[in-house]
Specification:
Length: about 160
Amino acid sequence: MTESKKILIVDYDSNSLKILEDLFKANSLMVITAADGQQAYDMFKKEQPDLVVLEAMLPKLHGFDLTQKIYNETKGSIPVVIVTGLYKGPQYKNEALRSFGAADYFEKPYDQNKLLSSVLNLLQDEIVIEEDLPDPAMVLDLVSQLNSSGPASKKQRS
């Protein structure tokens, strides 16, 4: 299931990057990394990861701005999880989730199991949503049936 899933990890701190990389690789995820916001955005466009984990405080392109860019460009289909050591408190978490489109938010030091669980759940949700989508031809057929029965039901009421 998760073997083919690719995640992009972004952090200016190489130690934090390595810890996250090891955590996700140990769980059979493909990992790509970037050290700043602009590099991360370029990698995101090129590699098309299934999920992004990023530090909010990033050089060149701020993590909140990067989150919003990814959210807007993918219409929210690619989850972004923010892991930050700087922006602590509910006001930052709420802003990240509501205004910038983050899927989840963790403050450093974070619980690795909770972070991993969140990432795996977000990747799983993506799979479930794709499987539950109806066939486009079926939708068109249903819509045309509804349209053809529409005027007749109005006549019966009057």
